[in-house]
Predict the 3D structure of the following.
Amino acid sequence: MTKIIKLACLLLLGLLLIPQAQAAWVDSSPSVEITKSRKAFDRVNRVLFSYVTIKNTSNKDLAAPVRLVISNPSIPVLNQTGTTGSGDAYLDIAEGLVAGASTKVRVDFQLKRALLIFDTYLESFENKVVGRVADGYLVGATVCLNINLNRKCDNSEPSDETISGGHYSINLPKGIDKNDYPIVAEVPKGAIDEDDGKPIEHGYTLSAPAGKPFFISPISSVIHTKSLVEKITGQQAADKLKLELGLEQSFDMFGDYISSDEMGVSTKKKIHTIAKITAKIMAENHDPIIIAAELSGLNNEGFTKKTLDAINLHVLGQLSTINEIIADIPENKVIDTTIATIPTTIPISELIKTTEWSDSQRQEFENKLTGEGSTAPKGEYTGEVCNGDIITESQSLAGIKYCIDIEGNKEKVRFFNVSFENQNTFIFLKNLKKKVKYTLYKKNENGLFKEVARPNEKWIRGGRILEFGSRYGEDFKYRLSQGEYKVSA
C-alpha cells in the first residue's frame, strides 16, 4: 500500500511539473491606481453610492474581461454583476482598460444609517499558455496561437516574442482554449540560437500540433506536418516517428531535449542533433521559396502551408539517412560537411505540382527562385563596408543599403550602430521602380531586437515596411536615431 501511495504521489508531482496553460482570475491591482469618492445619497433610487475611479498606471493594456471587486463592505452592495468564489461582490468593466486610461464605476449600497467602509481590488482574467522554442533555445522568435490555421502569425492572433531560454508566454482571450489550435513560431533571420549565441542567418517557421504548445522545435514541426498529411492526431504521429527512429514508446517526442532530466544523455544528444539538422534544412529552403513566391505575386495563404509541409516531408523522407549519420556527430557540432550526404534542397517540382498555378506563373516562380531572368548582377556583395554601394536584389536586400562587415568577400554581420557623432546613417533605396518590403529592428534595453517603424512610417501587416517606387525610379533615404539596428527582407 505504501508503495502505491508513493507511486501516486510521484505521478501527481510529475503532472504538477509539466508547464500548464493558466486560466483564472488574477489580482491586477499592482497595475492600477484606485480611488474612491465620498459616500453620497441617491434620492431618486433611495440608495447610497460611491464612485470608484480606476487608472491603469502600467504600460500594458488590461484586456477584457476585467472586474472591480468590492471586499469587506460595511453595507451590502446592491448593483453587483456577480460574486467571486470567495463571496465578494464584483462589477464588470466590460471594455477592459488600456494602458494609461481611466474609468469610473458607480457602486450602489443599501440605504442604511451606518459608516460606509469597503475595500477594492481589480481582477483580470488570465488565460495563458507558456512554453519554449528551440533548435537550441531561440531568442527573438514570434510565437502565436494559430487560430486561422494559416501557419503564419497574423496581427490578429495572440502572440509573444521569445526571451532568454526560448521562453514565451501568451495571454489568450477568454473563451479561447489553447488545446484547440496549433502553435506557430516564426524564427526570423537574426534571432539568437543559444546553442552558440550567434544570430541565425536564414529564417524558418516551426510549429506544434494543437494541444502540444510547451516545447516548439523542428521535431514538433515535422510531427505536426505528419499528423496533417496522414490525418492522424499529433500523438499518433509522434508514436510513428518514435518507431522510425528506434526510440522507446515511453519517450516523449514533445519533450525538452535540451534540459529535460527525464531523457538519457545519449537520447537527448540524438534528438537535439536531428533537430539541428532539420533546422538547417528548413533554413536553407524556407526564405528562398517564400521570397520567390512573393516576388512572383504568388504567396497566398495556401502556398505558405504547402511550403512548410513540403520542407517537413522532405525531412521525414531523409530520416533514415539522418539516423545513420548522427552517431558520428560530436554534440552540438552539426556542420555543413556533416550533412553533405543529405539532399537538403527540397524537390521544387513536387511543391509546384500542389499549386494551381498556370505555366507562366510556374516559370516566373522558378526564375525568381534561381535568379534567372534578372538583369541585376549575381553573387556575393564584394564592396567595402558602408561605401555607399547598392546591394542588388539577387545579392541581398532588394535595394536597401546598410552597413555590413565583409570578410572573405562575404557578408559577415548585418548589424550596424548609429552614434551621436554619426547621425548621417540612412536607410537608402535608390532608383526604386516597383516596391520593396523590409523589416527594421532596433535593440532595446534588454538586448533584444524589436521591430520599429522608420520616421513617419505607418506600420503594415506583420510590422513590415512597404515602399513604392515609380516607373521612372525614385530615391528614398531616412535618417535613423541613435541605437543599434538590423534590417531583413
Summary: Helices lie at 2-17, 218-229, 234-245, 265-295, 301-317, 319-325, 348-353, 359-370.
